[in-house]
Amino acid sequence: MTMRYSFGGDEHVFVEVDEAMSLEAFFKSLSITTAVRAADIKGVTEICPANASFQIKFDPDQIAPDDLVTELKQLESAADTAEARLQTRIVEIPVYYQDPWTHETLMRFRDRHQDPNATDIEYAASINGYDSVEAFIAAHSGAPWFVSMVGFVSGLPFLYQMVERARQIQVPKYLRPRTDTPKLTVGYGGCFSCVYSVRGAGGYQMFGITPMPIFDPKQEIGYLQDFMVFFRPGDIVKWKPIDRETYDAAVADVEAGRFAPRMAEVTFDLNEFNADIDAYNAKLEGALQ
Amino acid sequence: MTIKVIHPGLATTIQDLGRPGYYHLGIPMSGAMDRLSLMSANLLVGNEEGAACLEAVFLGPQLQFTRDAIVAVTGAELPPKLDGDPRPTWTSFPVKAGQTLAFDYLRSGARAYIAVAGGIDTPPMLGSRSTYAIGALGGIEGRAIQPGDDLPVGEGGGKEGLSVPKALRRGPGSPVELRVIPGLYWHRIQETSQKSFFDDTWTVAPECDRMGYRFRGGTALDFVERDQPFGAGSDPSNITDACYPYGSIQVPGGTEPIILHRDAVSGGGYFMLGTVISADMDLIGQMQPNMPTRFLKVDMDAALTARHDRQRLVERLRAELA
Fold it and tell me: What residues of chain A lie within 8 A of the CB of B129, using their CB?
């Protein structure tokens, strides 16, 4: 990994940890941004970790741009020796794959798609070498995912699957972005899954929908009363495929204020994970039982 | 006191100086597209310079006042009319209870700021009253104003007849010149494209709003060849999804540059070639579709000098309107 520093105008430093996505790049970005937050550098106004990069917004009246870069480079070497270990939580998110709402939307935007004769999930299954959509869903929901960035729109998580690269799913984004995406669509672009927190434009392939709100500006939903955004970088997500009946029941539970996501506190250790990925994932998922 | 919205205009929103601090969660800064004009409007009516105003785009609203007030309109040349009588822009004037403030057609610019002494007093969310429609934050129920809305106004004083001297009003020239620091993924495009981007005259596309301004008419960019990195996506303009700096210029597919503005998405998978300097971001808020635009290549020193020039302008405004 070669760190690349660049300025975004006179108010941002942009640091690319690696051009490609990997858990190692994510952990490096997260540990440096954590160190930047702890260092409480004068003039730093926003600290934004991303998948394999990060961005610092600063006030150049308080710190000279080159001085900030010097400070960041010092923290970079400290982060190199930090343990890739994280206290975090695993959350089970129900997904109704191939739901009628994203289906209606994807049919409306067929002219912007690589394969107008297939649905998004059929296309993704086929280009990733799966015999059936069912087998593809089994792979998408079969191993957990890391929240490697929060952003795009309010509280939208980018998720990276915790499997070796050979098993990772990759799909292109739409040829031209859609102007509409149903709220809570589970999407896919590049190597990332996402949950669209609000309705709006989007370029990711649409696979399904979750009944679980992840952004509530009114903070009325029980598990969003502390803060309106659910996800934090480092959260681990396990998709749980559900059918229409279970989806409807969950929506009713959300509306009645009864819905609470299944989740548990866990520790994630990157070295232990890399030593035996499937066994480590099984242990993580065990925390949800 | 309240102001009754008779007609909302095209897309009139409540804005202040914005909502910094939540970018890492995908919540953009929002706030006035032209901060200097918002600050001027507030100073004219005796408000704190970051108080909430109405930001009207292209077409003014029609507003009925329930109490006497001092009002000022700055930014775009959108001439105010009080019960049909013209009032000057960039100058504070009194409004009586029962009177209706409306606007004539837009003469120049794109966004007018309507300040009322006391400021618009809707509840702040995450430290700001600014409307961010996509996330349903701020303003009235997180949306643009609608007919029948009652806009609450705080207690305020203010005096009539204050005016911003012409020398202290800043607007885009023609062609508009926007200064840019190349960077971010600048190395992804060929040298010929690095040159044509700054040589060409671009025009503002119809897609220009609080999220971003799109440009057309320049030469499509050629990318440096490479095997795309894992996770980025197959198009040469794709990157592993990253943060987007405010003011950064992304070029999806290499064809139409988009400058990201106050309500832009906070990150995504398109490469960016550089960033408009902070001192020039206000100018973009006053640009209309089809305006010719040149991008000027500058370095950090020039950006910081421009930033200090802008700060001196703000200081002169404060002194003039104190």
Answer: none
